[in-house]
Specification:
The complex is a heterodimer of chains A (236) and B (770). By secondary structure, chain A is an alpha+beta fold. Chain A has two domains: 37 residues, no CATH class; 196 residues, Lipoprotein localisation LolA/LolB/LppX (outer membrane lipoprotein receptor (LolB), chain A, Clam). Chain A contains eight helices and eleven strands. An eleven-stranded antiparallel sheet of chain A has the order 6-5-4-3-2-1-11-10-9-8-7, with helices on both faces. In chain A, β10 and β11 form a beta hairpin. The longest helix of chain A has 24 residues. Chain A starts with a helix and ends with a helix. The relative contact order of chain A is 0.17. With 770 residues, chain B is an alpha+beta fold. In chain B, strands 2, 3, 4, 5, 6 and 7 form a six-stranded antiparallel sheet that branches. In chain B, strands 9, 10, 11, 12 and 13 form a five-stranded antiparallel sheet that branches. The chains are: A alpha+beta (236), B alpha+beta (770). The interface between A and B is large, with 84 and 118 residues.
Chain lengths: 236, 770
């Protein structure tokens, strides 16, 4: 008899109640939130390909990966065009970037508004009057961040798990297409196209909804070390 | 005598009738129930509160949460996927899911529709009070490469309201979406844990399902460990399965042990195979008990059967009463032996029934059912012992073994010689001193959780799941009532303000309330009004090239959005977590719940509802603990009342003094048992008290037996010893139970029986007895 009462009581045990709440919460809520906090795959691709500066001839993905690890610092300028279906003109923004293998990415937007971003092991940060401010959702975006940095350090296996990679062309004139594997990702965008020659020239992200983003990289060079100011930015 | 022929026939007719009734009751299969909720005190007279509770618990009894852990993320996902397929194929589950299949179009639709109603208070205030900042942030977001995806394309939501709603969704826990595989993954202890969710076809009260699920989990666990993966599971079903296994084990132990022990005892003492027929009253008793239970309650709980099995030891006492007369009554004949003992038997039945039925008045439905089962069972056992058994034993000449009698004589001599040296009064003082000392050490425990014999492994796993996922749901919740939806949301907001403080103080991890999902109609109107002023501030957007016409169309569209009420807000996929919270229209108003996460201090909760009209804390755990404390007092009162009843009953045969004495002995025995618990360092729980309540009723029997002294002191002592032994065999075996409360109950009954036996000889000698 007492077993029962005991068992009945167990049902009130708060630990057991987990089942209910977690499942209900998780499925919708964190999914949505994860979408919100995800650095767009554009950036993962961007990192991956900016690093490819090699001139090898028989060009395959393995070589692409190998070359990722080579340059330690890349400086460059970018133009981002956001093509929205409803706008006749794209939203154009410009700025510079610094990609450092051991540190992460500095993304300095200059026009039409000024805003500095940083991706590092700590997460994504935005600079305001008080210095770098880490964006929230650190835990939710942690995996993406890790993936990002892994790619930066030459490990693209994580990327290949989520995307089908198709490489065409030669080392000095090639095109890489990333097609999402999962149904979930396919609901968000159709594919990512990356064009490169000696350096990456263009990244194009096509969203399922019809919008697209084009990133053009100019004046990328791998021969300058980090300046003191840049080191300082990464150190904080 | 004609009665010797008539009685068995009459009884057989009755038996056939009862069997027929039983057959009819079982026509649709066993009327058994395993619903544990039926057994706890139903102290919620409020139908709404009950409905709310059921709503909160329903998923618990049907869903199982599993974490598949592996150092390698891909491996973890692969194992989870295999597990999912295997479980799906098992047919036990309605749905098994390891990855997310988000219905993005539906999400988009809901976000767009809820742009006014679902906007968070902070964002709403910004749009109303600081439209410039609002527009500026929107411009930034359009260029920000790190804001990630917005589910809704910009041209459908130029103001970015859906993105804000997306970002303001309260987030708890540390589980994240693996966007490639769609799996929900948490990182902990150097492993990747993939979350798997299964919903069973039946619920935890099903008789078979929980065991099947537990078996499947066990097999899957082994398989996973072969692949280097670890499984952690949490579900109400697992507790149910464990409870059922335990109950089955205990029925086997208590019922089987008692039966074997009693049969052996009968054979050893009476040395005749036919004496085993004394077990017939036990079976008849079980039948009567079951039939009465189903007749009164519509079904019988499995746990009634567990405790019912301890009735074996009491029911067998009736035949023992006259069988044991064979030591003094030679030659022994069944009918004459019965005639001598009949008054004692009848008194015994009456006192035992009083004792059992006293249990029926406790607020525990479990005990009520057990009381009915036992009382009806005793009546059945009595009737068959009186009407049928003597006929079955007719012609049997009992020549019982002499060694039990010699033991009894030896005991009796020891007692006499002891009394020569130490008079009874001195012994009484010593006993009272013993009692006083023991009671001094006695402490009571009424925390319901201390009664739980939940296996530590289940608890540890549940804790691990809570830790890894970061979810710590609590069993307490708030019930909010109001006249209408508007008032309800206002009341929830008032409660929410207090809960926010707890969250800020880290006393609470979070909560879920409908007012987080949908704003008040008045607030939605404020937004509409504020949108009128927005064109004066949106120049920065126009500068980007956003057409003014598009913005104007959007504002017009937003302003035309209908005001959402709770039902409308709950319609989309995003509202899933909130959906269970809405109780809807209830008599004369509306009601909803507020659920809580990660509570550190339950005492703080009660204060939160103070002075908030319509807000009520539902804390079943706390309420139950209080019921237990209250019941302890009422149990003591019941005990005294049953004693008064028994005294009244016994005045007739024994006179007032005799009756008082007969009742005083069991009371003293109960006191001694309490003291022993104290000396042993065992806590007094409500159930040990119930045990003692029962012992009082049973041991009155022993006092009567000793007072009547039919066939001499030694023979009566032997009869008492046999009765006590058989009873102890069935009740005492409860002490082996793995649930602390059950073994506590068994222990207190055992102690009570031992003391009752020792004290019974002081019942005195009835002069008129032969």
């Amino acid at each position: 008899m007492l077993t029962t009462v005991g068992a009945a009581v167990r049902r009130f045990d708060l630990l057991a109640k987990i089942v209910n709440d977690i499942t209900v919460y998780l499925t919708r809520r964190s999914a949505l939130r994860s979408f919100a906090s995800k650095p767009a795959p554009t950036w993962i691709a961007f990192i991956l390909l900016l690093s490819v500066t090699g001139t090898a001839h028989a060009f395959d993905l393995q070589q692409l990966s190998d070359q990722l690890a080579k340059p330690s610092v890349i400086h460059g300028a970018f133009t981002q065009e956001k093509h929205l279906r409803a706008l006749p003109q794209p939203l154009v923004s410009k700025g510079t970037f610094v990609l450092a293998k051991d540190h992460g990415l500095l993304w300095l937007l200059k026009t039409p508004l000024q805003q500095d971003y940083r991706i590092s092991a700590q997460g994504i940060a935005r600079r305001d009057a008080n210095g770098w401010q880490l964006l929230p959702n650190k835990s939710a975006g942690a995996e993406q961040n890790r993936l990002f940095l892994a790619v930066l350090q030459g490990d693209s296996s994580g990327l290949q798990r989520d995307f089908e990679l198709q490489l065409q062309g030669e080392a000095n004139g090639w095109k890489l297409t990333l097609i999402p594997r999962s149904l979930l990702l396919k609901q968000v965008f159709t594919q990512i196209n990356i064009d490169g020659g000696e350096l990456v020239q263009k990244i194009e992200l096509l969203e399922t909804q019809g919008d697209s983003t084009v990133l053009r990289m100019q004046d990328s060079r791998a021969d300058q070390p980090l300046s003191d100011a840049e080191k300082h930015d990464f150190a904080q | 005598m004609p009665s010797e022929r008539l009685l068995p026939r009459l009884f057989l007719i009755l038996l056939v009738a009862v069997l027929a009734l039983a057959g009819w009751q079982w026509r649709h299969g066993a009327p058994l129930s395993a619903n544990l909720m039926e057994l706890v005190p139903g102290n919620t007279p409020d139908a709404l509160e009950q409905q709310a509770e059921q709503r909160m618990q329903e998923p618990l009894n049907r869903e199982m949460l599993v974490l598949v852990g592996h150092a390698d993320r891909q491996q973890a996902v692969a194992v989870a996927q295999q597990l999912c397929e295997r479980w799906q194929a098992s047919g036990l589950f309605e749905k098994v899911q390891w990855n997310l299949q988000a219905d993005l179009p539906a999400l988009r639709e809901q976000l767009l529709r809820g742009r006014l109603a679902m906007l968070s208070a902070k964002d709403r205030e910004q749009l109303i009070d600081h439209p410039d900042t609002f527009i500026q942030q929107r411009v930034q977001a359009l260029f920000d490469p790190f804001t990630g995806f917005s589910l809704v394309p910009s041209q459908d939501d130029w103001l970015g309201l859906t993105g804000r709603i997306q970002n303001s969704q309260p987030q708890h826990g540390s589980v994240q979406l693996d966007i490639g595989s769609g799996a929900l993954i948490a990182d902990a202890d150097g492993k990747n844990w993939v979350l798997l969710r299964a919903r069973t076809t039946g619920n935890a009260f099903d008789m078979k399902l929980p065991l099947q699920v537990a078996d499947l989990l066990k097999a899957s666990r082994e398989q996973a460990s072969g692949q280097g993966a670890q499984l952690l599971a949490a579900s109400g079903l697992l507790y149910a399965a464990n409870g059922q296994q335990q109950a089955t084990r205990e029925i086997t132990w208590v019922g089987g042990g008692a039966t074997v022990g009693i049969l052996l005892l009968l054979l050893l003492a009476f040395r005749r195979w036919r004496v085993l027929l004394a077990f017939v009253p036990v079976l008849v008793g079980m039948l009567f008990g079951a039939v009465a239970c189903v007749a009164l309650f519509g079904h019988m709980h499995v746990m009634t059967l567990v405790l019912g099995s301890s009735l074996i030891g009491v029911a067998v006492d009736y035949p023992l009463h006259y069988l044991s007369k064979s030591w003094s009554l030679q030659p022994w004949r069944s009918w004459p032996a019965l005639r001598i003992t009949l008054p004692g038997l009848s008194l015994s039945l009456a006192t035992s029934c009083i004792g059992y039925l006293a249990l029926a008045w406790t607020p525990f439905p479990a005990l009520t059912q057990i009381a009915v089962f036992s009382a009806a069972g005793l009546v059945g056992a009595y009737l068959s012992a009186v009407c049928l058994l003597p006929a079955l034993l007719k012609g049997v000449e009992l020549r019982p073994a002499q060694w039990p009698l010699r033991i009894a004589e030896c005991l009796w001599r020891m007692r006499t010689s002891l009394l020569k040296r130490v008079p009874s009064s001195v012994l009484l003082v010593l006993v009272l001193l013993f009692c006083a000392g023991g009671l001094w050490h006695l402490n009571t425990k009424n925390d319901i959780r201390q009664w739980i014999g939940a296996p530590p492994q289940l608890l540890q796993e549940a804790q691990a799941v809570a830790r890894i996922t970061g979810f710590q749901p609590t069993s307490q919740f708030f019930l909010v009532r109001a006249d209408n939806q508007q008032q309800l949301l206002e009341r929830q907001a008032a409660l929410g303000q207090r809960l926010d403080q707890l969250v800020n103080m880290d006393k609470l991890q979070g909560y879920l309330a409908l007012n987080q999902l949908v704003s008040l109609p008045a607030e939605q109107q404020q937004l509409r009004d504020a949108l009128n002023a927005l064109p004066q501030h949106w120049q920065p957007l126009l500068d980007l090239g956003v057409p003014a016409a598009a913005l104007q169309a959007e504002v017009a569209h937003l302003q035309a959005l209908p005001t959402q009420d709770i039902d409308a807000a709950l319609a989309g996929p995003l509202a899933e977590p909130w959906r269970t919270l809405w109780l809807g229209q209830v008599d004369g108003g509306v009601a909803a719940m507020v659920s809580l996460q990660g509570l550190n201090n339950p005492a703080l909760l009660r204060v939160q509802a103070v002075d908030l009209p319509g807000v009520q804390l539902v804390d079943r755990l706390g309420d139950l603990n209080r019921v237990f404390a209250d019941t302890q007092i009422s149990a003591a009162e019941l005990k005294l009342m049953s004693c008064v009843l028994i005294v009244l009953l016994l005045i007739l045969p024994f006179g007032f003094g005799g009756a008082l004495r007969i009742v005083a002995l069991p009371l003293l025995a109960a006191l001694c048992s309490l003291a022993s618990l104290g000396w042993l360092g065992q806590p007094l729980t409500l159930f040990s008290l119930f045990g003692l309540l029962l012992v009082t009723a049973i041991s009155v029997d022993y006092a009567i037996l000793m007072r009547e002294q039919i066939g001499g002191a030694a023979v009566s002592l032997l009869g008492t010893l046999l009765a006590a032994l058989t009873t102890w065999l069935s009740f005492g075996l409860l002490a082996v139970s793995s649930t602390p409360a059950v073994s506590n109950f068994g222990l207190s009954v055992s102690l009570g029986l031992a003391f009752s036996f020792m004290l019974a000889p002081w019942a005195g000698h009835q002069k008129h007895a032969s």
